[in-house]
Design a protein that fits this description.
Length: about 350
């Protein structure tokens, strides 16, 4: 492990305050012989000094293209558009294997530079279960924002906050409502249930069994719905434009945590643009009203809790980087996606 070099990059998205490695876990990695370079980042929820104190080297934001070739660049969200050729191994959420917008362009950049995407979404155990995920907090926040909006208490623009503050807002919110969580047995689903519980709402919970023969009437009879489904093969849409036009629709607030916009897996294919922190809610219908919340960086609203949980889950994988079968599976997935586009991938240096 002595030559392992991780490079924690600054996130270019200005609202992204999370990090995949928190200072206490950086310290564990350093103690285990891992060299860590941390790009200074004005928005990261943990100060750069905390990484320095943990034994990391510090550099300027955005320096990763000039990192040593053996360095593994670690981040969360999208890379900047430059450089055109990606030469390193990159650990982050690439959103590149489900035909999403920009997916092919990203894979082409890796092919051009000979680097590799080790996509965190595909870091799985030998049963295919995700090893590190933000799902719980995504579901928690999707449901929390939906309840607060439905009850007339959502303050915008959204800003990151501490969990205790969000809990207090949920407990203070009032108003009868019926809620449905789809994908309720998953990580986001359990987060959504936790937020609804905090708000005093006991939701209807559906997962695969309940949507196999979908009762759209029952779905539309809820005031609020939270979609937290993760599907890997296309399924018929849960709702279409036509369903939203049903005059007897009771549904008023829809939080789509999944936000599979533009993907063939999208179970809610009636909108094509996400919402954001400045404008978290978009009105889809006027009579009767229907409001959509479709934010793709929900856990960033609770950056400390989300980062800490994620980093805890990722740490054993980073400590086991050389031998871990999970990273090999990640690399295989990248190569398969590249080959499907007839792109050539290069052999990586043997660690
Ligand atoms: N908006 C955000 O900021 C954000 C952040 C993190 C994750 N996500 C997304 O949230 C989604 C859920 O992630 P997760 O970690 O909870 O996944 P998960 O695998 O833990 O849970 C998904 C659940 O969906 C269920 N499911 C699959 N197909 C279904 C179907 N046809 N009908 C009903 N239920 C079905 C599964 O059985 C599972 O219980 C993913 O798409 C993920 O990308 C969004």
């Amino acid at each position: 492990m002595t030559d392992r070099h991780l490079w924690l990059r600054h996130e270019t998205r200005t609202t992204e305050r999370r990090t995949p490695i928190v200072p206490s876990d950086a310290r564990r990695l350093v103690e285990n012989g891992v060299r860590i370079t941390v790009e200074d980042s004005p928005q990261r929820i943990f100060p750069t000094e905390a990484y320095e104190e943990a034994g990391c080297e510090v550099t300027e934001p955005g320096r990763w293209p000039s990192a040593p070739s053996n360095a593994v660049i670690v981040g969360l969200k999208e890379l900047p558009d430059e450089p055109a050729e990606l030469t390193h191994r990159h650990v982050f959420f690439g959103h590149a294997y489900k035909g999403q917008p920009g997916a092919e362009a990203l894979l082409r950049r890796f092919a051009a530079g000979g680097g590799a995407l080790l996509d965190l979404e595909y870091l799985v155990d030998d049963q295919g279960r995700r090893l590190a995920a933000f799902g719980f907090w995504a579901g928690y926040l999707g449901a929390a924002l939906a309840v607060l909006h439905h009850r007339g208490g959502l303050q915008t623009p959204l800003v990151p906050m501490a969990k205790e503050e969000m809990e207090a807002r949920l407990r203070a919110s009032e108003g009868d409502l019926t809620a449905l969580v789809i994908g309720a047995l998953g990580r986001s689903g359990s987060g959504a249930r936790a937020a609804l519980d905090e708000a005093g709402v006991e939701p209807t919970c559906w997962d695969v069994a309940e949507t196999r023969d979908l009762d759209k009437g029952a779905l539309l009879a809820h005031d609020l719905m939270v979609n937290t489904v993760l599907t890997t093969s296309p399924v018929p849409p849960f709702l279409t434009d036509k369903d939203l036009d049903a005059p007897d629709r009771r549904l008023r607030t829809l939080a789509d945590v999944t936000v599979d916009v533009g993907s063939p897996m999208n179970v809610l294919p009636f909108y094509d643009t996400t919402t954001d922190w400045d404008h978290p809610v978009r009105r889809l219908r006027e009579h009767p009203p229907l409001d959509l919340i479709a934010i793709d960086n929900l856990p960033s609203l609770l950056p400390r809790e989300a980062s800490t949980d994620f980093s805890t889950a990722l740490l054993p994988q980073l400590l086991d980087f050389r031998t871990g079968g999970a990273w090999g599976r990640c690399l295989d997935r990248f190569r398969r996606a590249s080959h499907e586009l007839s792109l050539t991938t290069r052999e990586l240096p043997d660690d």
